[in-house]
Design a protein that fits this description.
It is a multi-pass membrane protein. It comes from Penicillium cosmopolitanum. The structure is a single chain. It is built from 24 helices and 5 strands. The strands form 2 sheets. A 3-stranded mixed β-sheet has the order 1-3-2. The chain has a two-stranded antiparallel ribbon with strand order 4-5. α6 (122-133) crosses α9 (167-195) and α19 (406-433) runs antiparallel to α22 (512-535). Helices cover 63% and strands 3% of the residues. It is globular. The protein has a single domain, classed as Growth Hormone, Chain: A (Up-down Bundle). By secondary structure, it is mainly alpha-helical. The two termini are 25 Å apart.
Length: 569
């Protein structure tokens, strides 16, 4: 670790920090009446139960990270939203503008593989960040990889390249490189934005109206990820522009716009370097975690890797390079990974709206609206509902002492997603009622494309509950030294969801696709109910699990030898 990196870590991460509230005046309703400084006193159990909990404001560095993510998501959605038409339709324009002519199933297969690849590669980025380079440097290097992939995509999508047969090969190479780049970014940018927030413990404060409140770091992390997700969806509104560029100019123009936007985001990332809070890598921490997991499995005991357990059973605690607290953190991370096990079902549902639902729109009366433009109602609904929830609904629930913990929010997200799929099935039924099916393809119907809107609104609302809470849970339950890795485990569930969606590709034809939508609606609803029954007890343990991080931040990464020496002592 360089001296510059050490200097970038603020001293306020020290365990005995003086607790200070941000004096930023751009707070939401929850904190706009909180006085500029907290009194530094930790609340007792009675105060935690009786006083209102509030969130803090975001530091400038967090907003900079959010801008970088906005540019990356602008790029990702702006280009990938065109993939279905790019791959499905032929270059001759007989079915509208296209390029590769691989038909519906071929397009769904390739776009689903791209989604799968983008959510496998975060594991690579996580290991590189947590063990070798740190989050910031890893993001910068993978941005360069991303830019190379985008450049290949632009060059091989120009008309001359397509006419000479470079389209398919260039597309495959591009999505492989882009998937590697976005994976390295995704596993690190979400924990990096939360790292910008310094407080680890609850603190007492007094509002300007004289009300005693508790500043709750967990609520601030929730707010950070709500804003982070809002920026993601502002970025995804690139689909308002790129489908028209595809239609009137060509696919290459939409891809070029995405390349330019991502280059701007990379520039912001580099120029804002001095503002970021940078946590250094922790050496062999990932290797140690896997070693500890192996000891748990071999001994069939979750506490087996603890030095205290080793001392009691083996008479020697120096055989492991960690302390008991590290194992407690690892056990908490495993809780999060068990929670994530249900997510692949959710991601199968979510993925339908960038593949099969785009093809469904192609069977409807567009009246001049490109069939891949309707996807924008997903981010638009998120942009509308996030401020509504954050400024009105959530503060009101906290004032009324109505708990709305992550497990409950995730369960609700699954249920709302099932409503989206059920609505998609209804739309598909209306299409069939208004058209005929010839050789497994539904003829163009007179059903207006706008009727798809409620399905996108449902999926958008479900994301606020399920996806945002998943990001939050992955950060708050991960050990400080494994934030990126646990985030990658959460993202990996999306890859599993894409793999399941790939298995469903043979059903992506008329009229079987209607029943696929119905089956996914039932599966998502059942998963939401079972999820709550299995994990709702974790809501009561939320504060205790989050408190594990309160005192374990050190401004410098301990060398492996130092950790071993401290354990022996």
């Amino acid at each position: 670790m360089t001296d510059h990196e050490v200097a970038a870590v603020p001293p306020s991460y020290a365990p005995n920090e003086e607790i200070v509230v941000s004096d930023d005046k751009t707070a939401f309703d929850d904190v706009k009446d909180v006085s500029p400084t907290a009194d530094g006193q930790e609340p007792n159990d009675q105060e935690k139960a009786s006083l209102r909990h509030v969130a803090e404001n975001l530091p400038l560095s967090a907003w900079l990270v959010a801008v970088v993510e906005l540019c990356e998501r602008f790029t990702y959605y702006g280009m990938s939203g065109l993939f279905q038409n790019y791959v499905q339709r032929p270059l001759d324009g007989s079915q509208g503008r296209g390029a590769l002519g691989m038909a519906h199933q071929g397009a769904t297969g390739l776009t689903t593989f791209f989604q799968f690849w983008c959510y496998v590669t975060p594991i690579i980025g996580a290991i590189v960040a947590d063990q070798y380079l740190g989050k910031y440097k890893t993001i910068v290097y993978f941005c360069i990889v991303y830019l190379v992939g985008l450049l290949i995509l632009v060059c091989t999508s120009i008309p001359a390249a397509l006419e000479h047969g470079a389209g398919l090969g260039g597309f495959i190479v591009a999505i492989l490189i882009i998937g590697l780049g976005t994976g390295g970014i995704k596993s690190n940018v979400a924990p990096l934005i939360a790292d910008q927030y310094k407080r680890k413990k609850m603190a007492m404060s007094t509002t300007k109206k004289g009300e005693r409140v508790i500043i709750d770091p967990a609520l601030t992390i929730q707010r950070i990820y709500m804003i982070f997700y809002g920026c993601i969806n502002v970025g995804s509104l690139s689909l308002l522009a790129t489908p028209y560029m595809e239609l009137y100019i060509g696919f290459w123009s939409g891809y070029l716009l995405c390349l330019c936007m991502f280059a701007m985001g990379t520039l912001v990332l580099c120029l804002g370097r001095k503002y970021y809070v940078v946590r250094p890598p922790q050496g062999s921490i990932i290797t140690d975690a896997f070693k500890a997991l192996g000891m748990m499995i071999m001994n069939r005991n979750m506490d087996a890797p603890k030095p205290s357990w080793q001392l009691e059973h083996n008479g020697n605690s120096s055989v492991v390079p960690w302390d008991d607290h590290f194992i407690d953190e690892l056990k908490r991370a495993l809780v999060a990974c068990r929670v994530f096990a249900f997510y692949p079902i959710y991601w199968v549902v979510y993925g339908q709206f960038s593949s099969n639902f785009v093809s469904q729109a192609g069977q409807m009366a567009g009246h001049g609206v490109p069939n891949d433009l309707m996807q924008n109602f997903d981010p638009i609904s998120i942009i509308v509902f996030i401020p509504l929830l954050e400024t009105c609904v959530y503060p009101l629930m906290r004032r009324l002492r109505i708990p709305f913990r992550p497990i409950t929010r995730i369960s609700l997200g699954f249920v709302v997603a099932s409503l989206a799929m059920m609505y998609a099935a209804i739309v598909q039924h209306l299409i069939y009622a208004d058209s005929t099916i010839t050789d497994g393809v539904a003829a163009q119907s007179n059903v207006h494309i706008a009727i798809q809107t409620p399905a996108y609104v449902f999926i958008g609302v479900s994301e606020i509950f399920a996806s945002v809470s998943g990001l939050e849970y992955a950060y708050t339950k991960a050990p400080p030294s494994m934030k990126s890795f646990v985030q990658s485990m959460y993202l990996l569930t999306n890859a599993f969801g894409s793999a399941l969606a790939e298995a469903l590709t043979p059903a992506a034809f008329d009229p079987a696709i209607l029943w696929m939508f119905v089956g996914l609606a039932c599966a998502s609803f059942a998963a939401g109910i079972i999820f709550w029954l299995v994990f709702h007890h974790l809501n009561a343990q939320e504060d205790d699990m989050n408190a594990l991080d309160a005192d374990d931040w050190m401004p410098e990464a301990p060398r492996d030898e130092e950790r071993r020496a401290s354990t022996k002592q």
